[in-house]
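Review form for a predicted model. The reviewer records the input and the model, then writes brief findings.
Reviewer: anonymous (R2)
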Amino acid sequence: MSQRRPNGLVFVSYAHQDRQRVEPLVKALATHFNVWWDREIELGELWRQTLMDKLDAARCVVVVWSAAAVERDFIWSEVDRVKQRGIVIPVKLDQHARIPPGFDQMQYLDLTSWTGSGSKVLQELFSRIRRLLGRAARTPVDPTATLISDTFVLPQSLRATRDLHQLSSKVHSLGGILVPGNGPVEDLLGTLQEVHRTYTAVSKAISRFIAPVVQQGPIAVKPYLEMERGKLETLIGKNRGHCARIVEYYTRVGGLREWLEPRLTATKLKSLDKTFGELGKADGDLFEALALVGYLLTAEASVITGLLLAGQQETARKRILAGRRKLLPLERSLAKAMSSLQQSGGALGFVPADNGKQATT
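Model under review:
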């Protein structure tokens, strides 16, 4: 009884000079998978557009490096187009073929002595392809959204952390007026709590993203499979603060603003109105910018999952560590903001709600 083919397209990238040598490999793959190579382009189809469409739709790309292939720019272009998605499995046909810089860091399977019959290395190729196709299908992620190539989300998150820090510092100034047991202290503490919860949720998501690479031995794929399916986005979404509560704390009848009004100058009260107003809009601005880190980590986890399933342990490790370096400024900014928040609120009895507790997943 033949084995059921897994869903998902396997794209084979090769140099045309190697067509006769590659055909036995394509036939071997086609007995187990849905394979596409450019010999299947129908007459009259736009060749380049069809090729790009198939490449974008592929959930695994087998690139065949040979002496001819390493000299062909279009092979480089095809691999570069999907490399960021972590779905490339390189195989080598010629022992002395020098894989181009930028692609030579990926571990390849050696088919230089393959004669067209079954072999251990061919079974390993099948196994890697199955692992890639076996994960849940996701909407293709735009490479510009991944952690490594991001130029927007992290800078916005850093700005949001600093802005929240500044806004919180203005709120802390009320500590000179409010003391435990005097006035609506709980309203102020509730405001600080919402900001701190957001800081903490993002910080813990980053820590969980990094954690698997710190362990001894091979990097486990399971944590990144869970992250790819949105675990970190869920972590942030369920544990972040909500600005509607901040507005409620400040404006409720008998609440903070009503208590402060006779005790502050009109100028000071106006400044606080503006501060709490900005915090009250943070769900669509500052908090949201921080929450987007979860989306970025999810997109990056998708790439790492692909690398791990394709047997690219070392490439995955280097990528995670590169991501760690890129996240470091945000981690430091979050740690500084959380520390400042706790110190400033300490006089009023501020204790973060998540102290000693695990974030809900």
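Findings: The radius of gyration is 27 Å.
Further findings: The chain is about 55% helix and 5% strand.
Recommendation: see findings above.
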